[in-house]
Amino acid sequence: LLNQEEEHGCMMPKAILMDVDGTLYGKHAVQRAMLMQLGAEIIARPRAGYRLLRALRAYRTAQERLRRGPECGPGSYQYKLAENNSGISECQIRSAVRLWMQQVPLQFIRRSRFPGVKEFCEWAVAHNVVLGVVSDYDAHDKLRALELDPLISTVVCAQDSEVDRFKPDTKGLLYALQKLGAQPHEAIYIGDRFETDALAAIASGLECFLLARPVEQTPGVTRVGSWFEIRTILEHRLTT
């Protein structure tokens, strides 16, 4: 993707916003570990296990439909939509999500943290850059598992009453910037998905760094291969 150094010159951001899943840690490694856990659950209790799997799939499908599908709407409707599409009660879906999407993955997340993430955050804070997280789900427990929570000034998720929208809607990013006291041109957003993170950043007026495979060239988006590369780019801006 386009290298943004010419456009931004030596500008160092006042604030850096970050996605969580797939950005701060390798989500595929965690997903593989979770599939093994779910497989064991299905083998041990086939009927309950398949019902659990159906509940989790309905929840994730509801998210994508709310993000950009015909039911595009508030994040708070995700459980109800999952209930309507699966026939499993909202209470049971909430219980499954709380255990299998919020608690069990924590044991795998710490060891899947991307190299250079913590060092990058420490370096940014040392240079008076405030850090924020904008994620689809409450990220507090994940940030503690990643040992990043002391470095993060604000955490925003789609379920917050002030947001209630999934990316690529801009409400989460703009709300996080408001909490950090920064304007879009003073900030960057780091994510891993073009169709959500990059599009949200572009629509919000933020420069975006994307930890992802190359996609079509898009103004305002720089594809990077690691957190070390992001730091190198920003360090270069400090010295030019």
Brief overview, please?
With about 240 residues, the protein is of the alpha/beta class. It has helices spanning about 5-10, 25-45, 45-70, 80-85, 90-105, 105-110, 115-125, 140-145, 170-180, 195-205, 225-240; strands spanning about 15-20, 130-135, 155, 185-190, 205-210, 220-225.
- Give the H and E element order: HEHHHHHHEHEHEHEEH
Low-confidence stretches: 1-10
Largest beta sheet, briefly?
6 strands, parallel
Alpha-carbon distance between the two ends: 22 Å
Fraction of residues in H or I helices: 40-55%
Number of strands: 6
Q: How many H/I helical runs?
A: 11
With strands numbered from the N-terminus, the spatial order across the biggest sheet is 3-2-1-4-5-6
Q: What form results from the Cα inertia axes?
A: globular
Task: Describe what this molecule looks like in 3D.
- It is globular, with a radius of gyration of 18 Å.
- The longest helix is centred in the first third of the chain and has 23 residues, at 46-68.
- It is an alpha/beta fold and 240 residues long.
- It contains eleven helices and six strands.
Helix/strand layout:
Layout: H1 5-8, E1 15-18, H2 27-44, H3 46-68, H4 78-86, H5 90-103, H6 106-109, H7 117-126, E2 130-135, H8 140-145, E3 154-157, H9 171-180, E4 187-191, H10 194-204, E5 207-211, E6 221-224, H11 227-238
Parallel strand pairs: 1-2, 1-4, 2-3, 4-5, 5-6
Helix pairs in contact: 2-3, 3-4, 3-5
Supply the key terms:
single chain, 240 residues, 11 helices, disordered N terminus
